[in-house]
Specification:
The protein is α/β, with parallel strands linked by helices and about 130 residues long. It has 3 helices and 7 strands. β3 and β4 form a beta hairpin.
Length: about 130
């Protein structure tokens, strides 16, 4: 399934649409280069869940940010596998919250959980291609 976003607002709308298309799915792996739309997508999910998007910040330095019903992880700065973070993420999968993981490559083989993979690609100045695979 592919989407095309021409501006950040489109990416947020696509996030809400994906959330509605996959009810019951709790884990989203977000792939893509820096500034490809992953955090904007997460803001769209949050907004669709009733969380003000202004509260959503990329947790690049903290690794994990928690909001009511949403856990947002950014593993960009995780240089090596970290058992503590892996265990924390595993615990989160057992909660009722939606778990969004940016840069999931380092944990893919560790967390054997049902998830949706979403890839973001630059397609021009503000345009993005978003693909669920």
């Amino acid at each position: 399934m592919k989407y095309h976003s021409r501006k950040p607002e489109d990416t947020k709308k696509i996030a809400a649409e994906i959330l509605n298309k996959f009810p019951g799915k709790k884990v989203f792996y977000l792939y893509g280069d820096l500034a490809s739309g992953k955090t904007t997508f997460t803001k769209g999910l949050a907004e669709a869940m009733g969380i003000p998007e202004k509260k959503i910040k990329s947790p690049t330095f903290a690794f994990i940010s928690q909001y009511p019903g949403l856990i947002h992880c950014d593993l960009y700065r995780l240089e090596a596998p970290d058992e503590g973070i892996f265990e924390t993420l595993k615990e989160y999968t057992e909660s009722d919250s939606i778990l969004v993981i940016e840069w999931p490559e380092i944990i893919e083989n560790y967390l054997q959980i049902d998830h949706i993979k979403i890839k973001f690609k630059h397609a021009g100045e503000d345009s993005r291609e978003i693909e669920i695979f």
